[in-house]
């Protein structure tokens, strides 16, 4: 099915200074051996996929929005991305050895001290299988500028990444700044003092020289919750695998049980394991389609939102949004808090942010006809 792509630049940056490239895998990696490829558009506005080659000068593959803002026939692509870079090309976008069929795509780095620390760019993720299009505007790793998407199908349409009418790019930077240290440390500026991005806290706890956010920031809260569940019960209502009840054992493991099912054990995310909580990895890794995965996701969301009880029995998930992000024992995920204060819905601020979500950050449209991307107004 033919999908038309339209790119609208309302950012305030001249369209001649907004560079973009669309790339991804040319077939399903679950059933084939795909190649990393980029979208090439002919003089008639029709798109096709071209395989990357090792050592290719990728700077020549970027277009500006004033040069090309619409095309037809978005090809089937897996792990696809639209990468938009403002005011300059990324310093890093290379085809390197490794990955699929011996080649991989090295995308711009975004953490302090890296080659593109001062480059402002945004990403839209998608997979187009032809009869179905999946897309999202993730800001799990960082927030740099607002971008929204709309996917239209033959019978329905969905949007993602829409900011509130009273919100703006500046409002997110101002909100993080107002928190003071250590959260204001997440703001990355260029040499002229311009705001470039707010770094996701899972990356901030891993930075060194300086360390932007302490890896122990969650320790007191985790200690209080684990102490609580040594004598009280945590009930988890899994969407697929039913209800599990858990308590903390003498080894500081949170052990969940269900009649006639194997126990599920979660190791304590601490001390010094804020990365596990913010990134939903390590002790909170969530394997797909398992009780462990669903329990870890719900527990990870509760810790990020600081709604896990440190006093008495508790049942999760707690989906009362007014309870989210209240500071407990000196912490909550303030990055997620500020992001959600400024977006209507449908946005990921941490990997398990879809727990309780009525509006999934992932758009899924069958029989898609249009994929509209808007680089939203910054002011």
Automatic annotation (TrEMBL):
The keyword Lipid metabolism does not apply. Gene3D superfamilies: Beta-1,3-glucanase, C-terminal domain, Thaumatin. It comes from the Bacteria. Keywords: Hydrolase. InterPro entries: Glyco_hydro_64 (IPR032477), Glyco_hydro_64_fam (IPR037398), Glyco_hydro_64_N_2 (IPR042517), Osmotin/thaumatin-like_sf (IPR037176). Residues 1-365 form the GH64 domain. This is Putative sugar hydrolase. The lineage of its organism: Bacteria, Pseudomonadati, Bacteroidota, Flavobacteriia, Flavobacteriales.
């Amino acid at each position: 099915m033919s999908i038309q792509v339209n790119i609208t630049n309302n950012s305030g940056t001249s369209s001649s200074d907004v560079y973009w490239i669309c790339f991804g895998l040319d077939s399903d990696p679950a059933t084939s051996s795909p190649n990393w490829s980029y979208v090439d558009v002919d003089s008639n506005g029709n798109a096709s996929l071209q395989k990357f080659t090792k050592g290719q000068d990728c700077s020549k593959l970027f277009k500006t929005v004033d040069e090309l803002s619409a095309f037809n026939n978005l090809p089937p692509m897996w792990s696809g991305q639209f990468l938009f870079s403002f005011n300059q090309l990324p310093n890093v976008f290379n085809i390197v050895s490794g990955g699929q069929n011996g080649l991989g795509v090295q995308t711009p780095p975004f953490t302090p001290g890296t080659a593109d620390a001062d480059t402002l760019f945004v990403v839209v993720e998608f997979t187009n299988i032809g009869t179905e299009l999946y897309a999202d505007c993730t800001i799990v790793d960082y927030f740099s500028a607002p971008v929204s998407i709309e996917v239209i199908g033959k019978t329905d349409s969905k949007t993602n990444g829409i900011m509130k009418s009273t919100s703006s790019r500046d409002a997110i930077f101002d909100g993080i700044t107002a928190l003071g240290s250590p959260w204001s440390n997440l703001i990355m500026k260029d040499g002229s003092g311009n705001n470039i991005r707010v770094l996701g806290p899972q990356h901030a706890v891993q930075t060194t020289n300086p360390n932007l956010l302490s890896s122990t920031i969650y320790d007191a809260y985790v200690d209080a919750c684990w102490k609580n569940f040594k004598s009280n019960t945590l009930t988890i209502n899994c969407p697929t695998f039913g209800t599990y009840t858990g308590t903390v054992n003498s080894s500081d493991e949170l052990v969940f049980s269900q009649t006639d099912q194997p126990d599920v054990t979660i190791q304590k995310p601490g001390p010094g394991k804020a990365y596990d909580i913010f990134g939903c990895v390590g002790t909170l890794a969530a394997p797909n389609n398992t009780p462990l995965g669903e329990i870890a996701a719900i527990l990870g969301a509760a810790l990020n939102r600081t709604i896990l009880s440190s006093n008495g029995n508790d049942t999760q998930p707690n989906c009362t949004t007014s309870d989210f992000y209240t500071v407990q024992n000196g912490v909550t995920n303030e990055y997620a808090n500020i992001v959600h204060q400024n977006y209507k819905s449908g946005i990921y601020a941490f990997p398990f942010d879809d727990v309780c979500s009525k509006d999934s950050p992932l758009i899924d449209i069958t029989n898609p006809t249009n994929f509209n991307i808007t680089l939203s107004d910054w002011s």
